[in-house]
Recover the amino acids of this structure.
């Protein structure tokens, strides 16, 4: 995916395809590569953009979900998008929700997969034994239904993150910000089409979180993926894409 990476001002992003903009937002331990299959599929019908969220480069005092939503707003303005579809996984979904609360008129539709914003079981309030790679491997494996997806490359990436003090303090700041920005009272006002794609075996944002999003969002459709954890677009990419394609077609988006 590196061949598509662009740098323009403060933004590093992937930009592929033509048509209605579809912006993909990664999670706290996510990467642009998490969306490879989504990019390959939907860049055939949409202009797919994946910005690299500045999780570890924001000033510590302003590190939070709202600042990431403001970054997304600048990204939208940079591209002069009057509207866009927003797809967010985990923290990325939360960013999309805060942005929608702030700029409802700029959101064509919301796609949330394993989104925070209501409740989540996070890594924890600290990182004990972060020097222990096997401990990190076990934690990463909890992201998936099938632990085979916690491969060496992903474990090494997470191991590097949690052993960098600068990144750890920002991760904790983002986790606290996510708790403060509970969206339960805001969802009823989000009068945009919403698609929820959820793993039935997600232990981080469990199925009852999806049910609550579905109940509170006024125009939502909920799609389940069995034998699937917290990253459906990675663990079951073909089924994830099929659900998303069905919803986009249904809503003429």
């Amino acid at each position: 995916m590196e061949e598509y990476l662009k740098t323009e001002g403060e933004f590093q992003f992937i930009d592929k395809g033509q048509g209605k903009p579809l912006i993909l937002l990664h999670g706290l331990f996510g990467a642009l590569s998490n969306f490879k299959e989504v990019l390959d599929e939907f860049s055939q019908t949409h202009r797919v953009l994946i910005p690299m969220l500045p999780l570890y480069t924001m000033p510590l005092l302003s590190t939070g979900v709202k600042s990431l939503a403001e970054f997304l707003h600048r990204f939208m303005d940079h591209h002069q998008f009057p509207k866009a579809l927003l797809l967010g996984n985990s923290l990325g979904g939360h960013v999309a929700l805060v942005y929608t609360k702030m700029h409802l008129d700029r959101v064509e539709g919301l796609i949330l997969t394993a989104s925070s914003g209501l409740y989540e079981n996070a890594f924890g309030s600290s990182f004990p034994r972060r020097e222990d790679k096997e401990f990190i491997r076990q934690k990463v494996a909890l992201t998936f239904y099938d632990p085979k997806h916690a491969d060496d490359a992903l474990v090494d990436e997470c191991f590097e993150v949690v052993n960098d003090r600068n990144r750890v303090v920002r991760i904790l700041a983002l986790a606290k910000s996510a708790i403060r920005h509970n969206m339960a009272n805001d969802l009823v006002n989000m009068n945009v089409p919403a698609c929820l794609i959820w793993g039935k075996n997600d232990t981080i944002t469990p199925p009852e979180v999806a049910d609550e999003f579905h109940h509170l969002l006024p125009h939502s459709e909920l799609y389940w993926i069995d034998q699937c954890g917290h990253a459906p677009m990675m663990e079951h990419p073909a089924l994830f894409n099929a659900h998303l394609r069905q919803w986009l077609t249904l809503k003429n988006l």
About this structure: The CA atoms of residues 233 and 240 lie 6 Å apart. The radius of gyration is 17 Å. The beta strands are 5-8, 11-16, 21-25, 47-51, 84-89, 107-113, 194-199, 220-225. The first strand starts at residue 5 and ends at 8.
